[in-house]
Predict the structure.
Amino acid sequence: MPRFAANLSLMYTEQPFLERFAAAAADGFTAVEYLFPYAYAPEVLADTLAQAGLQQVLFNAPPGGDTPEAMVAAWEEGMRGTLCLPGQEQVFQAGVLQALRYAQALRCPRIHLMSGRMPEGAPRKLLEDTALCNLRWAAQAAADAGVEVLIEPINGRDMPGYFLQTQAQAHHLVQLVAAPNLKVQMDLYHCQIVEGDVAMKLRQYLPTGRVGHIQIAGVPERHEPDVGELNYDYLFGVLDALGYAGWVGCEYRPRAGTSQGLGWLRRLPQELSKK
Ligand SMILES: O=C(O)C(=O)CO
């Protein structure tokens, strides 16, 4: 069975952020991911992880902005990364360097670079060239720090105009850059909304070795993975059959209480998550 990480941006929101770590550990998780660490000093987060006995497996580079306040403002204004944005290269690079500093302090092996929303009227080729240039730079900077960088296709219903929406688009960029530490973050929720055929997409892409992280949620409401149009018991079997050894991030909004909603996990025939 896969190894599951709690996503502390969407789960345990009943509690203040720093208390979510202990709550996840109390429910048996040994790993966490979340969107952004920048509102807290890295030492505070490292201590919180250590006290809860958790490992950090993923977080995002800044969505835009160059201070914690500006990053929050950028997110609230709808910025969803700068990877594909011409003219934002310096903001992109500063954000990656900031993320790598946190990754080292938190011993986190991978970071997600959000690709951004397409500016109206911008030619896709220009955005793709910008993304490629930025990815080459980021993969090298991250390799020097021993960290993987990920890009993720995200559905355009949740993020209208998002640059990367299909698995094929993300894998195309990863193949062009051809850096061993650049991979795709495959969120099965987004995959089902945009293109469907999820089991076959797993069978197509996992054997390439280009998928570095998986995330899950029920479709269409992004609740627990035991509700909605995807059959996750079946998909977890597909992951096992394909020998997927990475983490599966639980990036969903609990319907009515995070711990109360973990029945789907408790019913799985294995320890809750493995180191
Ligand atoms: O919205 C998502 O799926 C993300 O992973 C954002 O980082």
Observations:
- The beta strands are 3-7, 31-33, 55-60, 110-112, 148-151, 182-187, 211-216, 247-250.
- The two ends are 12 Å apart (CA to CA).
- The domain at 3-267 is CATH 3.20.20.150 (TIM Barrel).
